[in-house]
Amino acid sequence: MDTLSIDGDGEESGVLGTRMPRRRFHQIVFLIAGFYNIGWGLFSAAQPQWLFRFAHMAPINYPQIFACLGMVVGVYGILYWEVARRPEHGWLIAAVGMLGKVLGPLGLAQLILTHQWPLATIALCVTNDFLWWIPFGLYLYDAWPWFKATLSKFGAQS
Question: What is the reported pTM?
Fold first, then answer.
């Protein structure tokens, strides 16, 4: 039986008849994350050498690769807006986003520790990753009961 319902304010209540904790906060966070990602993506697609200039590195030979990264990051912004719109249904999107926010810094750490990239490139992870760990982690914690409630429907016949 589906335990999610819409209350008088148009917000979903569900698991145990409660509203998602910090629902409005999560909506604001993912709205901002959407704008941030789209802005970062557009800037990086238009200026794919920015990080290399910032970190005083040689320009990359194929800036299209960094421009493509900008496009992917920008597209995540649209997905984050969907989480903001329907926070009870965004756990998987946010989990994929959080995975990128953990794996990205691990890859960068490897580049820095092996002296392939300078420490200044950590600026990339400060605003793209580290800044979002706590709010995304808190969201994943708060949204888990709603995601878990839908797992029993996986593979069910309609």
Answer: 0.83
Q: pLDDT tens, 60-108?
A: 999 999 999 999 999 999 999 999 999 999 999 999 999 999 999 999 9
> Which amino acid, residue 73?
V
CA 84 to chain centre: 11
pLDDT in tens, 112-155: 999 999 999 999 999 999 999 999 999 999 999 999 988 876 65
3-state helix, strand, coil in the chain (%, to 5): 70, 5, 25
Q: In Å, how far are 8, 25, 38, 56, 129 from 83, measured between CA atoms?
A: 21, 12, 15, 37, 17
CA distance 31 to 112: 32
Name 19's bridge partners.
13
Identity of the residue numbered 97: G
The closest alpha carbon to 131, from 21, 20, 40, belongs to: 40
Q: What is the dihedral sign for C-alpha 90, 96, 99, 105?
A: negative
If we measure between CA atoms, which residue out of 132, 137, 104, 146 comes closest to residue 32? 132
The sign of the CA dihedral 125, 127, 130, 133 is: negative
